[in-house]
């Protein structure tokens, strides 16, 4: 009988960074000069994290996808509220 424990898969640090940047981009969307670069950087880091996850068989795909989605949402908010 097996104990049911499996080796934990390492989460990609790029994926964590993408999620944190996405949250920061949403928080700072009011300040367009700061929110816009954060949103773009979130999407870039999220894409890099997905490549890293596929290449190195690490975890964190959901975090990376959430980061990319938050970056896209922040870009949309900034684009619609910009003067």
Automatic annotation (TrEMBL):
Coiled-coil region: none
Keywords assigned by UniProt, alphabetized: Membrane, Transmembrane, Transmembrane helix
Domain DUF4190: 15-79
Transmembrane segments: 12-30, 36-53, 60-82
Record carries keyword Transmembrane: yes
Domain of life of the source: Bacteria
Protein name (Swiss-Prot/TrEMBL): DUF4190 domain-containing protein
Species this protein is from: Mangrovihabitans endophyticus
């Amino acid at each position: 009988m097996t104990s049911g424990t499996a080796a934990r898969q390492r989460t990609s640090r790029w994926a964590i960074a993408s999620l944190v940047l996405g949250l920061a981009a949403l928080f700072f969307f009011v300040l367009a000069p700061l929110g816009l670069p954060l949103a773009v950087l979130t999407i870039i880091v999220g894409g890099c994290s997905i490549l890293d996850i596929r290449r190195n068989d690490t975890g964190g795909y959901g975090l990376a996808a959430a980061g990319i989605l938050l970056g896209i949402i922040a870009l949309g908010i900034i684009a619609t509220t910009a003067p």
